Amino acid sequence: MRRVAVAVLVMMSLFVGVALAGAGEGKLSTLNGKVVSVDAKASTLMVKVESTPGQPSDMSFSIGPDTKVFKDGEPISLSDIQEGSMVTISFKNDNGKSRAVAISVGGKAT
Question: What is d(CA 6, CA 12) in angstroms, rounded to the nearest whole number?
Answer without folding.
Answer: 10
